[in-house]
Amino acid sequence: MGERVMIKEFGSDFHYIYSEKGQSHFLDDQECLNLFFSGRAAVYNLLKVGIAEYKWKKVGFPGYYCHEVVDFCRDLDIDIVYYQYNPLENNRIEWDDNEGDVLVNVNFFGIRKADVSHLKKTVIIEDVTHDLLSTGRSSADYVFGSLRKQLPIGVGGFCIVKENDFFTDTHETVAADEAYQKKSVAMLLKADYLKNNLDSNTLYRHYYQEAEKMFESRLTDSLMPQQAIAQLGTFPIEDLINTTRENISFGVKELKPNNSYQVLNNENGFCLVLYCRASEIRDHLRNYLIEHKIFPAVLWPNQIFEKDKDLQGRILCIHMDFRYSHEEVKHIADKINTYFENV
Fold first, then answer.
1. CATH fold of 237-341, please?
2. Per CATH, which fold does 33-160 belong to?
3. 20 to 30 A Cα–Cα from 311, which one of 54, 86, 241, 285?
4. Would you list the domain boundaries of the chain?
């Protein structure tokens, strides 16, 4: 068998990965797990059940968050508010703690979440998108997440509810199935592009962008398409996430000490998270990496509060997941080192 050739670009969306291994306990070991089209559809339906069954009146989301998720929930009959929590400062949150209150506590980057132990009346919903395997360790009343950040699947979200909670008016929609098909085509085309079977990324980017727009539509308030569930069942989920952890840990060790940034995670999460000393440093590093075909992510755009805008402007998420060999992870780390050696 020949030596693996390094792929020609890194990061951004997953390409299609064939798998027949399965053997995952993530889906089997969770009682009362429900699969939805997306993480936002999962929390939307979870809130809908709480409003109807438990008279939930107010839900708090952290100010530093993916605001597309919040916007998706705005037509629900519940007061939506923001509470200020900065995962770097790890500040104590201010919350009234009344009956009928709900608070979404986010496991940020798989490394930190707010301490909510002082809240006795508030229902806690934990977002474990960045650390799926922490689901069984959560002490929250409910858990939800997107599957798309840590797993190579085009659509998918889930929530875990109590034994007597039921979703009565959910179904699989045509729009959800169409979005899954578009995303799958994009992932297949990207796989061809990475194998040099396509000269340009224009075609697969077109399909990705079309599919992503559909996530904002209420028509994708849907259960997870059956084809997507079948694909999910082929993944060795724990193996994929553990390989990502090993890669991040390896990548951190390959980075040379530098006072221009700090590494926020040693292994957990879906990517390497760098916190730069200034937004200008982050922007210049990001542009340099893109020039060298390494496409990092910024979490999250369009923040509201000043502290969150500052955090958005200084964080850079660099993919070092299971897609990559140690040689490729070293290549990414070397590019980061080279940039700071020459500025």
1. Aspartate Aminotransferase, domain 1 (3.90.1150)
2. Aspartate Aminotransferase; domain 2 (3.40.640)
3. 241
4. 33-160, 237-341
Closest-CA residue to 273 (of 252, 301, 250, 291): 252
pLDDT tens column, 233-251: 999 999 999 999 999 999 9
Give the model confidence (pLDDT) of 29-88 as tens digits.
667 899 999 999 999 999 999 999 999 999 999 999 999 999 999 999 999 999 999 898
Place of tokens 């798309």: 148
101-106 vs 79-83, strand pairing mode: unpaired
Angle between helices 202-214 and 174-194 (to 10 degrees): 160
Tens digits of residue pLDDT in 117-174: 999 999 999 999 999 999 989 999 999 999 999 999 999 999 999 888 888 789 999 9
